[in-house]
């Protein structure tokens, strides 16, 4: 995924980010860091096709990303900061519905759901409603849904913020495994240890992006 001279903002407000140029590559985990409000979610939303750039280009494999539907069709998976889970469905239903919505068969969905929930340590909570899970368990359910989609690009927005040290480590390992199978992984985080586990670090400050670790 390549961003060239991208300007991002909301409605007619001041730009949030200006002139962002970055390539996220298959097989690597790219950290996007910055203080609260620096624009991490804004950048990931642009990479997800949710926020069209005011200027500049976002491309995947050389062709324009398009809107969110097109991005989903090209395998761009977003694990959003607020989880985006349906509270009145179970953890397993949340994952399965997403797999089926992106073309998986019911059998496929069952297998991938079981595997993904087990990977994040939620096998025992598969049939519990999301609203009955703790904040950290909900965050892991959202990660399981993202993993089950087997994305070409995996955008993870602050996915370790509610996790204890052991679960955070596990999730960072799972993101690494996504990169190892060939995915392009981008992790937005304000956790320096999580950022240190990534291959490169793009730091956002004062509306611009610069390399903390190229
Ligand atoms: N929907 C929106 N409409 C208008 N402004 C927005 C919107 N979403 C975010 N912003 C603004 O864009 C700027 C960057 O916000 P963003 O959520 O991208 O930051 P962040 O780095 O992800 O922060 P955090 O670490 O707190 O999640 C902030 O000034 C915020 O107020």
What does this protein structure show overall?
The protein has helices at 40-47, 68-73, 91-101, 106-119, 135-148, 165-180, 192-196; strands spanning 2-9, 15-23, 29-33, 55-60, 63-64, 76-79, 153-157, 184-188, 200-205, 208-213. It is an alpha/beta fold. The protein folds into 2 domains: 1-75 and 151-214, Rossmann fold (3-Layer(aba) Sandwich); 85-150, no CATH class. The relative contact order is 0.21. The structure holds adenosine-5'-triphosphate. It comes from Actinoplanes cyaneus. Residues 1-212 form the ABC transporter domain. InterPro entries: AAA+_ATPase, ABC_transporter-like_ATP-bd, ABC_transporter-like_CS, ABC_transpr_LolD-like, P-loop_NTPase.
State the main characteristics.
214 residues, 2 domains, transmembrane transporter activity, alpha/beta, globular, P-loop_NTPase, binds adenosine-5'-triphosphate, four-stranded antiparallel sheet, 7 helices, six-stranded mixed sheet, nucleotide-binding, Rossmann fold
CATH-assigned homologous superfamily of the largest domain: P-loop containing nucleotide triphosphate hydrolases
What small molecules does this complex bind? adenosine-5'-triphosphate
Query: Which segments are poorly predicted (pLDDT under 50) over 5 or more consecutive residues?
Result: none
The total tally of domains equals 2
Distance between the termini: 16 Å
Mean pLDDT figure: 97
Give the DSSP E fraction (strand runs of 2 or more residues).
Answer: 25-35%
Helix content: 25-40%
Order of helices and strands: EEEHEEHEHHHEHEHEE
CATH class of the largest domain: Alpha Beta
Specify Rg, calculated over alpha carbons. Answer: 17 Å
Structural class: alpha/beta
- Globular, elongated, flat, extended or rod-shaped: what is the shape? globular
Q: Give the count of helical stretches.
A: 7
Query: Biggest sheet: strands side by side, in what order?
Result: 6-7-8-3-9-10
InterPro entries: AAA+_ATPase, ABC_transporter-like_ATP-bd, ABC_transporter-like_CS, ABC_transpr_LolD-like, P-loop_NTPase
Organism: Actinoplanes cyaneus
Protein name: ABC transporter ATP-binding protein
GO molecular function, one term: ATP hydrolysis activity
């Amino acid at each position: 995924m390549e961003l060239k001279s991208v300007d991002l903002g909301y409605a007619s407000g001041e730009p949030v980010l200006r002139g962002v140029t970055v390539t996220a590559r298959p097989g690597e985990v790219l950290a996007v860091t910055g203080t609260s409000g620096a624009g991490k979610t804004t950048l990931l939303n642009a990479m997800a096709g949710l926020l069209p750039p005011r200027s500049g280009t976002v491309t995947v494999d050389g062709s324009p990303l398009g809107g969110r539907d097109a991005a989903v069709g090209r395998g761009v998976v977003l694990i959003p900061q607020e989880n985006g889970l349906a509270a009145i469905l179970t953890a397993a239903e949340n994952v399965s519905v997403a797999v089926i919505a992106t073309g998986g068969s019911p059998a496929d969905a069952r297998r991938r759901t079981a595997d993904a929930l087990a990977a994040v340590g939620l096998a025992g909570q598969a049939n519990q409603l999301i609203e009955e899970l703790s904040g950290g368990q909900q965050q892991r359910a959202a990660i399981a849904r993202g993993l089950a989609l087997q994305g070409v690009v995996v955008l993870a927005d602050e996915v370790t913020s509610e996790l204890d040290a052991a679960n955070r480590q596990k999730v960072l390992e799972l993101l690494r495994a996504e990169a190892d199978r060939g995915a392009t992984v981008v992790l937005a985080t304000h956790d320096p240890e999580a950022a240190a586990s990534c291959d490169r670090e793009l730091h956002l400050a004062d509306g611009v992006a610069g390399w903390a670790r190229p």
